[in-house]
Design a protein that fits this description.
The complex is a heterodimer of chains A (about 80) and B (about 200). Helices cover about 60% and strands about 0% of the residues of chain A. Chain A has 2 helices and no strands. Chain A is elongated and about 45 Å long. With about 200 residues, chain B is mainly α. In chain B, about 60% of the residues lie in helices and about 0% in strands. In chain B, helix 1 packs antiparallel against helix 4, helix 3 runs antiparallel to helix 4 and helix 7 packs antiparallel against helix 8. The chains are: A mainly alpha (about 80), B mainly alpha (about 200).
Chain lengths: ~80, ~200
């Protein structure tokens, strides 16, 4: 079981990889190697995000799983060191 | 439309406040070559672009600049939280404090408020992409200047990330400009404005 910091680090790495791939594909939309790289890393990212949210709470305001309170509001927020 | 993800694109963990440095770094929030200006420039230019590569790239880079704006604001927020009145007076931050307390307000280090005159959205694809190339270099130079003024590794770390992104964006805009030019008359790129004229 990965700890929160480790999991968030992996999300940051996977997300950045996807961000970079997206910009490259914007100007190289027919590059099949880049497409495969993009598919691989966006799937990894999706899985990591799902795992993180199950254990530690929502990363977007439409994925709150709690039924008793709207944990989207929970502190700390990112500029305060949250989800870091 | 936009979706917000509750994390920073790059982590910011600053343990020591410094109101003097906050006054410098604020230029990358509200300054002429800062992240807010960049985001509004690209997100404004995209609507009338004649080409899907330009629409996609301006949307994606424009959105990333909002992520960067958030990182810059997190740096300033952490540099100015729990400041004492003594620190505020000693650092010259009192001029900002009187109007904004420690809230984030987009202005340049010299005090010029963020304004739309800091960018253009000219409605000509070649012109706008050329502006965007310049914008990325201006931002990169600003980060270079910031790195000359600061040596705290906790601050330099996210600043170096942001600087590296400007260089990648510059590369992508160059590719988009070349792509636009390839779709125009090779004898005269300026024969018509692809965003307005119907040849």
């Amino acid at each position: 079981m990965k700890d929160r910091k480790q999991l968030m680090h992996e999300i940051n790495v996977a997300s950045f990889t996807v961000d970079e791939a997206v910009l490259f594909l914007d100007t190289h939309p027919d590059d099949s190697k880049a497409m495969a790289y993009y598919q691989e890393w966006s799937e990894k990212r999706r899985d990591l995000v799902r795992t993180y949210e199950k254990q530690f709470g929502p990363l977007t305001n439409d994925s709150v799983a709690d039924t008793d309170k709207f944990s989207w509001l929970d502190e700390p927020w990112p500029w305060e060191g949250g989800n870091c | 439309m936009w979706i917000y993800e509750k994390r920073l694109q790059y982590p910011v963990n600053i343990t020591q406040t410094n109101a003097k440095l906050a006054q410098i770094i604020i230029s990358q929030f509200g300054g002429p070559d800062g992240e807010l200006a960049a985001s509004q420039r690209y997100l404004s230019q995209r609507y009338t672009m004649p080409d899907k590569v330009a629409k996609g790239l301006l949307t994606d880079i424009g959105s990333e600049e909002l992520n960067h704006m958030e990182i810059v604001c997190a740096v300033i927020y952490q540099l100015t939280r729990n400041l004492s009145i003594e620190e505020i007076k000693a650092s010259g931050f009192d001029k900002y404090y009187v109007d904004h307390t420690t809230a984030l307000w987009p202005q340049a280090a010299g005090g010029v408020p963020f304004n739309a005159c800091q960018f253009q959205s000219k409605g000509d694809a070649i012109t706008d992409l050329t502006e965007d190339l310049a914008a990325e270099q201006k931002a990169r130079t600003t980060y270079d200047n910031i790195l000359r003024l600061i040596d705290d590794p906790e601050i330099c770390d996210p600043i170096r990330f942001l600087r590296a992104r400007e260089i990648v964006h510059f590369q992508r805009f160059g590719e988009a400009l070349r792509h636009i030019q390839e779709s125009l008359d090779s004898n005269n790129f300026y024969a018509f404005n692809p965003e307005f004229d119907r040849p």
